[in-house]
Each structure stands twice: as structure tokens, then as C-alpha cells.
Amino acid sequence: MMKASHNFRKASAAAVADEVLGAAVEKTATLLFSGRASAAARYPGFEELRDWGRSRKMEVSGDLWRFARRFADRLEAAGGVAHYARDAREAVEIVEGIARRLGAVSAVKSKSMTAEEVSLNEALLKAGVAVTETDLGEFIIQLAGEKPSHIVAPAIHKNREQVADLFHKALGSPPGLDVGGLVQVARKTLRERFLAADIGITGANFAVSETGSIAIVTNEGNGRLTTALPPVQIALVGIDKIIPKLYDLTGILTLLTRSATGQVVSSYVTVITGPRREGEEEGPRELHVVLLDNGRSSLAAGQFREMLHCLHCGACLNSCPVYRAVGGHAYESVYPGPMGDVLSPLLWGLDAYADLPDACTLCGRCAEVCPMRIPLPEFHRRLRVLRTDLKGKKAAWKALVPAILAGHPMLYRAGLKGMRRLLSSGPGLSGLLKAGPAKAWSLCREAPRPGEGPDFRSWWEQRQKGPKGDTDEQG
Amino acid sequence: MSKAEVLERYIRMAQAAGTVVERVAKAELSVRLAALLGEEESSKMAALSASGWPEGLRESVEAVLASCGFEVTMARKDQSGYSWDRVRLGAASVGIVWCEKYLAETGSLVLTTGPGMGGLASLLPEISIVLSDADGCLEELAEYLHLAGAALPARMTLVTGPSRTGDIEATMTTGVHGPGKVVHFILDVD
Q1: Does A236 touch chain B (CB under 8 A)?
Q2: Which CATH architecture has domain B3-161+171-188?
Q3: ipTM confidence score
């Protein structure tokens, strides 16, 4: 995933020149953006709900390990198996290990950006497991051998003609099918794969600490099929997906679906609490949940903590003038758009994604639509400051990055010994604050900063003092 | 909100999500169901949930299906519990299940797993027919969770309208993986 040196300007130049891509992205992003706006307006108290949602996520990010520990306990009490993966490699190894033990040859997958993050498909393919993406958008880009370009609408960059052509070549369907015809081809092809699959792989939109449940939200029903038909389910879940209580689902679900697509609720919301129970005729006999850290816990103690609140709804992408002009691929990260500009450097290093904090006009629209009120423009600005601070301190920065991303050494050792050990010995927020890497990270913030110039700085500070930043349209 | 208002809200929200809602008197169910099944021109196989039904209702549904020329497939019970005949289930064009509770706030059906509850019958066939009592309507999810308490099923699914996708040019299209049509019969207590 880590890029040697990502050059956003160069990568975006080609994207801007591609008119098909530009029109396709603009069409969908506009629809989703206006859908979100009217869905938010129709819900009385949506602004208060955002405050509430943020406060629930603050509770979790303030004591991540406690909530993760309880989630794992409750999951196992319900008959599931909890795993902890410190990084992408460990996550892949855990999934491969399960597949090997089962002698699995095929898997169906419901869209998971977390699985994209760790390049799970590629690894499973090498291990002899054929993975089929079942979300229509993901299926399209899998056939095309491409990467998703939007976290909610992965094939946003393709038009119908391109998809019809792709299905014709790859699946032998008649040429020139309309959207309805294409959907039927996908239904028939994928239904067979669902019925034959040894493993169902999913992500999760939420992991409920109180009950050990995971919740999966889809419109197509592929999430429901993936968790109903295969004999084994493996859910790969970022530790940032934890919510405290089942009741929290009520409000956070509303925030997610209204922000993502403008729907009151998606067609299917499945809440899974353990594997199939005695006498039941559907659901997996084994349920594995792999909690993925991959740099997330190191954010909990620092100035970018609120990135852990991200619901991955995509509203910031749809609102972003830069994303809408270039589409997702130019970001060369699984997470594009404003949330990706911030998350990619944090997870994989500011060295690798030095350009991304600049892929932002500071217009403020993303903060306006973010259901969790993550201050994305401010985070872009902070990353620019951090990057400038570290210029000329190349060696010091280089030494620091692995330390930050690795987290506390105790976490590392315990992580290798498995979930339970890790969670019971995790240092918690206060421990992390005292620990080396997090401290170093916050020291960076305090270092002298040449910044973007006094005019911008004072303007920004003035803006911060004014009527609350969130409602400012123009930046 | 009164019970009647809550139910009205459910109907409005479910219809907005694309569910076909029909309120019927219990005595009229057979006629209305037969009319719906008569329109159905694909396979004459219907998948039915085996358990969860109020007394005698499954049998009346089976009788309607038989009169419309439908074969019925259900999960069968043996020592290890319920299991489907996957070939017959796969051939079903219609699935019929009972749904205890549904939610006005979002227009959602709450389908839960349990032995013989037949969740696959509401998922795999092209047409999903769901039957409920008029008094099964709750205001919102929070109310359902409160009632369920600690007794969470292994899987609980909120179903709101048909299976849909907007993944090609944001053109909303139904029936991608699950049913393209969801019909909810709400039985009035007569």
C-alpha cells in the first residue's frame, strides 16, 4: 500500500484530461451530494444528531482498548472468534490461516474498504482462494482489473457503455446491454458464486462493543447473502468501527445512510451476533472477526484522533471540488478525497503521501457535510504545517515515522500473542500519551512552524474565532 | 402518536422505499394473495418459512399456493436442525415469510433468524411476500431493541424496500441480489 513517492499533481493531470471519467464522477457525486443535502434537511434535529454521534465516537476513541476488549469478549461469548491484527500483513496471515485450515478454494466478498486496505484479494489469490467481489461496483472493477475510485460507489468512474463492453468481453453477455440487463447478468453470475463459496468475507460498518455484534449495511443485499450462505464468515473490521452500545446504532445508522446516499436507511442492515445457532438453517457455522489496527490506535492519543470517528460514508468525497475534478484513482490510495488526504499520510506516512494535504482548497465543504464533524480542512492544514516543520529534519522524521506507526512496543509484542493478551495489557489512552511515539507525535505539532505565511495564518485564526467554522461555505 | 398514526407512517415510509404495502382483512388474504400470485409468470415454486407463523396461517398460505399451481419448498427438520433443499430453494421465484415487527420510522421490516424462520425465503427469490399483523408496527428501531433486550438473534436484518443498486451511472435498479419486488400484507384484526 505504501507508495515510494506519490505525485498527486502528476497523477491528477491525466485524470482531469479524461472526459469520460470527469463526466461519470461528476454525475454520481452530484446526485449523492444533493441526496445527502435533502436527506439531512428532512430530518428534524439532524445537526443535534451529528453532535450526539460525535460524542458517542469520542467516548470510544477516548478509551479504544476498553471498548475493543469488551467487543472481543462479547463476540466470543456469542460463539464467534476474535482476532487482532496489528498491521496489514498480520490481517492477511490470519485470513490465509483460516482459509488453509478449511481447505477453501473460493470466497465471496461483500464490499470492504478495510480488505482493500490490506490487499486481501491479492493475497488470497496467491493462497489458491478465488475471491469474487459481489457488490456490483466492486465486481465491475474486479473484472476490469482496477481499483475502487470511491469508498461508497467504487465504479463511479465508469459509464454504462464501458460496463456493457466489459461484461460482454469478460462474461460473454450480449453487447450494448442497458443498466437493467447488466444488473441481471451480474445477479445470475454472482448467485452461483454465492452458493458455491467456502467463505464469506465482509467488512463491517459498525462493531457493537456492548453485544459483540457487527452491523453490515448494503443496498444490494450482497452483504446479507455473504453472511447467510457460506459456511464460514470472516469479517475484517478496523478498530475505529466500534460503537459503545446497540442503541447507538439507531442514530449512527441514520447519520451514515443519510450522509452516504441520502437514504432514510439502506435496503438491508444486518446485525450479526455470533454464528448460526442450533437448529438454524442459515448463517455461518464459524464467525471470525479480525480487528485491524494498522496504525489506527496510534491516532487515538494525538491531534488527529477524530479521524477514528470517520464512518466512511463518502460525503466528503462527494462535496470536494478536487475529488470531483480528478476522481479517486489519482490519490493512489484506497481512501481518496478529503478523508483520504488526511488518513493516507497518517496510516502510511507523510513521506509516502506528501502531496495529499495539498489536494484541498480549504473550502470547508467537507467539514460541513461530515456526519461526525471531523475538522477535515483543519487537519489538512495541520498536515501541511507538520510537513513543513519536518523539512530539513528529514533524518529525524524518518526515524520517527516507524515509531509512530508501530505504536507502543508493548502493543507489538502483545499483538503477536493474540487478541486477548493484547487487549488486557493495552496501555489505554493515558499509557499511549506517556509512551514514546505518541509523545513524539505531539511534540512535532509544537515544533516551530514556518507555515503558509502570516496572512493565511491570521485569516485562519480569525475564521476559527468567528461563527462556528462548520457553517462557513467559502474558505 | 396513536397506533393508527404509527401504522400510517410505516406505510408512507415503506412505500417511499419501494415496498408494496397492502392492508387486508384476514378473511380477504387468500383472495388478495391469489391475485398477486396469478400475475407471477416465472417458476411455479414458492419458498416458505417453516416456523414463526401464527396458528394456522401457514396452512392457509400453502392452500392458496396450491390453488395457484405453485409447488412449495420449506426448510426441513432433522436431528441436526432445519436445512433447505438448495435446488428447490434456488428455483423459487416467490418467497413468503411472516414478520412479527416492523418499524414506522424507516419503513423497515425486522427479520430475525431462528430455527425454521426461513430468512433465505425472503432473500433469494425475485419476489418477497411478507405477512404481518397490524399491531406488529413499532415506532422506531430503539423501541424494537428495547423489546428484544438481551435476547438478540444471531442475525437480525432490517429490510427496507427491494434490493437495489446505483453502481452503474447512479441509475437506481432493483433486484440485483435480493428480491426486486417486496410486497407487505398487513393483516387487520377483524
Answers
A1: no
A2: 3-Layer(aba) Sandwich (3.40)
A3: 0.97
